[in-house]
Amino acid sequence: MKQYALLALIAATYCWAGCKSPAPGLFGKRTPHEMYSARISDAGLEQTALGRLWKAAAAQSLSQPVTVNLPYSEEGYFSADKPLALGLRFIVKRGEKVRIALSVNSRPRAIVYLDLWEMRPDGPKALAAADTAASILEYEPDASTSLLVRMQPELLTSGDYTLNITTGPSLAFPVQGGNRASIGSLWGADRDGGARRHEGIDIFGKKRTPLLAVAPGTVNRVESTNLGGKVVWLRPEGKDYSVYYAHLDEQLVRSGQRVQTGDTVGLLGNTGNAKHTAPHLHFGIYTFGGAVDPLPFVNPLVKTPPRVTGSPDIQRVRTKAATTKIYHAPNSDTGFHSVPQHTFMSVQAAMAGYYRVSLPDGREGYVNTGSVVGLGTPLRQLPVKTAAVIREAPDSLAPRKLQLAAGTKVAVLASYNRYHFVQHEGTEGWIEL
């Protein structure tokens, strides 16, 4: 009871402090997750089984994350009796902004921590953090990189959650009314018979269509050149690169002018070496190291996560085939182990085509949703030949739940190793074969 009272005190203290906590991601200030972890230590709870499991889960989520492809979505459930920490690793291109949105449905309200990390050779580097009071993280990397998001609820909380990870452009689209179909020539295409490569993208449209500032910033230069014709250079505020608009029919800004996102900087045309082509904007981005592909910065085609195909309401399943593969990551044909037919699994989350599951021995992984079925329909009625005990777990040392007399019939729902998972008169548990 002391442990539960202390945990309640920690939760109450954090709920009060959370409204006053420093903005996450600022150097020298602890994240909400770090503050809660410190409270666990201060209360002496890291010496308890639950406290140790919570901290071990947090560490494992960073050292052994699951690799996923973006966009990504999952719906799941976290239980009060088993500390959970989920680490998902993914790639984000330079110019993209990643958006991580978490919604939690619980009563009473559960606190769930989100932390974003960059995966580096010398270990993860913390980038940003939030809790369910502000359960959206957005981040724009300075270079294409591997990121990791960790989700972890407080101790002794349970609830349903939905997690979505998407990417989108970090800049606004530069041509008024344009879309992905307006882009007709991409980065790296041959120019001058292969003598050089295209250092930008071409966005086509009607002549004198307004060209828009893609971000707040300052106009660097307004000039005319043989190659670009009438051009405008814009330096977005707080960025280490400049944006290049070329082939304008008319420039409508001056050097040194401050602009806001959506302000008109010029009109689309075909000046310079584009005089024999259809009107278009050559749009480029230049860093101190040279040009970079601008498409991720402005690509208006934002993909939505695949639809979750499994049911997050199914929390226990059994396998259907003679053998079923449990994968280390979704959408992966490598890294798996196999289990026999009717194997019991607990479902932690559902996503497109997969369930994340755990076996009774604690091993976790991913199974195809079509390879398992819920436990609603018993496999068969089994008469117990001799007196038997229903236990909480498939272990001869697990606590007893019910004593069965010889001849008692039980409904068999699933199995694991030498045990059946059974149901009898409202009691569920494990009996040894």
- Category by helix and strand content: mainly beta
Largest sheet: 10 strands, antiparallel
The fourth-level CATH homologous superfamily of the largest domain is Mitogen Ypm
Number of strands: 34
What CATH calls the topology of the largest domain is Jelly Rolls
InterPro entries: Cell_wall_metabolism_enzyme (IPR050570), Dup_hybrid_motif (IPR011055), M23ase_b-sheet_dom (IPR016047)
Signal peptide: 1-17
Keywords: Signal
Protein name: M23 family metallopeptidase
Give the gist of this structure.
Residues 1-17 form the signal peptide. The chain is mainly beta and 433 residues long.
Describe this protein's structure.
This protein is mainly beta and 433 residues long. The protein folds into 4 domains: 2-168, Mitogen Ypm (Jelly Rolls); 180-298, Glucose Permease (Domain IIA) (Distorted Sandwich), CATH 2.70.70.10; 316-370, Roll (SH3 type barrels); 380-432, Roll (SH3 type barrels), CATH 2.30.30.40. Helix content is 11%, strand content 45%. The chain is built from 4 helices and 34 strands. It has helices spanning 2-18, 32-42, 49-63, 295-298, and strands at 66-67, 72-78, 86-92, 96-105, 112-120, 123-131, 136-139, 145-153, 159-169, 183-185, 190-191, 196-197, 201-204, 210-212, 217-225, 229-236, 241-251, 258-259, 264-268, 280-287, 290-292, 316-319, 323-327, 336-340, 344-351, 354-358, 364-368, 372-374, 380-383, 388-391, 400-404, 409-416, 419-424, 427-432. Strands 10, 13, 14, 15, 16, 17, 18, 19, 20 and 21 form a 10-stranded antiparallel β-sheet that branches. Strands 2, 4, 7, 9, 22, 25, 26, 27 and 28 form a 9-stranded antiparallel β-sheet that branches. A 5-stranded mixed β-sheet has the order 1-3-8-5-6. A hairpin with a 2-residue loop joins strand 5 (112-120) and strand 6. The longest helix has 17 residues, at 2-18. The protein is elongated. The two termini are 37 Å apart. Mean pLDDT is 90; it is low at 1-27.
